Amino acid sequence: MKLSTQGGIKLRTADASDARRLYAMIQANLAEGHLLPRTLDELTVHAGRFVVAVRVRKIIGCAELAPLSAQVAEVRSLAVDASARGGRVGIAIVDELRRRARREGFEKLCAFTHAPGYFIHMGFSIVPHLWLAEKVFTDCVKCPQFRQCGQYAMVVPLDVAFNADRGYGLPAPTYAAVAAARPA
Ligand SMILES: CC(C)(COP(=O)(O)OP(=O)(O)OC[C@H]1O[C@@H](n2cnc3c(N)ncnc32)[C@H](O)[C@@H]1OP(=O)(O)O)[C@@H](O)C(=O)NCCC(=O)NCCS
């Protein structure tokens, strides 16, 4: 299914035939992004959860919308090819995952990352890991880095804070607007 087009870049849902290319993209960004290693088998099975960015039939970015519970979904395996960085491809993919998660009835979208600044830029907030117990008691407890985790747990609510027409963040209030709203 094609999802959207912007500047010659198309977003679409991946399918099993993309699994090798997803694998290559994740492997290429494993160390830099501290990404969770993925096997070709699981990527084949879960390819349909991935949104991919495509330019002239080449996959230049990807991320998975992985359900952690009925309420919480996770952005997993986010990567953009080095040749396509800085062009808002990553933002477009996360934005699409957010739309999809909202449509599928999730209440929150989370991410575990060493790059909190990037997600803050997209409206996520840092939260204690235990606020995402679904993740801690499934994945984290099996991780060799458990209790010495260098990743930030990040969450964005999918209800009122998200406005599909205005994109991924509400405009920050100006100082003048904040001052005017303050009681005298
Ligand atoms: C992180 C990554 C996905 C970003 O993809 P990208 O397409 O280059 O990013 P975008 O172009 O969508 O984002 C650009 C915006 O994010 C901001 N940004 C990028 N990295 C940032 C960071 N670490 N902290 C804060 N802001 C950041 C840029 O300043 C830019 O802001 P602007 O729109 O106001 O100009 C890409 O660098 C990547 O694949 N890295 C390796 C794998 C990885 O780190 N994955 C994430 C693991 S959770």
UniProtKB/TrEMBL annotation:
Keyword Manganese: no
Ranges of residues in domain N-acetyltransferase: 9-159
Gene Ontology MF term list: acyltransferase activity, transferring groups other than amino-acyl groups
CDD domains linked to this entry: NAT_SF
Keyword NADP: no
Keyword set, alphabetical order: Acyltransferase, Transferase
Domain of life per record: Bacteria
Protein source organism: uncultured Acidobacteria bacterium cosmid p2H8
Pfam family, one: Acetyltransf_1
Protein's recorded name: Putative ArgA
